[in-house]
Design goal:
Strand content of chain A: over 45%
Order of helices and strands of chain A: EEEEEEEEEEE
Number of helices of chain A: 0
Largest sheet of chain B: 5 strands, mixed
Number of strands of chain B: 9
Distance between the termini of chain A: 38 Å
Structural class of chain A: mainly beta
Number of helices of chain B: 0
Distance between the termini of chain B: 39 Å
Helix content of chain A: under 10%
Strand content of chain B: over 45%
Shape of chain A: globular
Strand order of the largest sheet of chain B: 1-9-8-3-4
Helix content of chain B: under 10%
Number of strands of chain A: 11
Oligomer: heterodimer
């Protein structure tokens, strides 16, 4: 069966520090991969999606970036975090039927 | 990209059947309707997907009228653990990248 791993679960970072969140998927190949951010009490905002290795599309201009160095690995990064980057970050993968399966999420607090 | 509209919130007593309706007036021919459930501090979880008429699984039923401009998620005999946010999404079921939008969903509060 397929599983998705996302870490860390919580993260507290100072403003201006770098960020690296990692997501890996097991049990499937060539999945579509997504990064979302959710502010408190709000819906999910799609940040990046990827349909293959090295193929990244950005939905929202910001100081975040994403990379897909391997088929089942998706990384969200920032060189310098802003206060506004705080939120709940979710990684997801989709199968051929486009049903998305989500990781447990990372709660990021930028102070 | 079909836009969806659903109530912001609903309250229900334990043991009752809950129906959450989603409007998607500009749904395309190839679009499927998918519902997700999200608990606080967790990622959304797939509940059910359908194209037309009725779909039922162990968790819920999905009713889609002939014109497909709306859909209704039905949760039988809800319990307190069904308190969550429910999202309705519309998009193709054909692989590749399909942009879908998670709106604010419907916040269901189950009351004892």
């Amino acid at each position: 069966s397929q599983t998705i791993h996302q870490w860390p679960a919580t993260l507290v970072q100072p403003v201006g520090s770098p960020l690296s969140l990692e997501c890996t998927v097991e049990g499937t190949s060539n999945p579509n991969l997504y990064w979302y951010r959710q502010a408190a009490g709000r819906g999910l905002q799609l940040l990046f999606y990827s349909v293959g290795i090295g193929q990244i599309s950005s939905e929202v201009p910001q100081n975040l970036s994403a990379s897909r160095p391997q088929d089942r690995q998706f990384i969200l990064s920032s060189k310098k975090l802003l206060l506004s980057d705080s939120g709940f970050y979710l990684c997801a993968w989709a199968n051929w039927g486009n049903i998305q399966y989500f990781g447990a999420g990372t709660r990021l607090s930028v102070l | 990209l079909a836009k969806t509209t659903q109530p912001i919130s609903m309250d229900s007593y334990e043991g009752q059947e809950v129906n959450i309706t989603c409007s998607h007036n500009n749904i395309a021919t190839n679009d499927y309707i998918t519902w997700y459930q999200q608990f606080p501090s967790q990622g959304p979880r797939f509940i059910i997907q359908g194209y037309k008429t009725k779909v039922t699984n162990e968790v819920a039923s999905l009713f889609i009228p002939a014109d497909r401009k709306s859909s209704t998620l039905s949760l039988p005999r809800v319990s307190l653990s069904d308190t969550a946010v429910y999202y309705c999404l519309v998009g193709e079921n054909s692989g590749g990248y399909q942009k879908v939008t998670f709106g604010t969903g419907t916040k269901l509060q189950v009351i004892p």
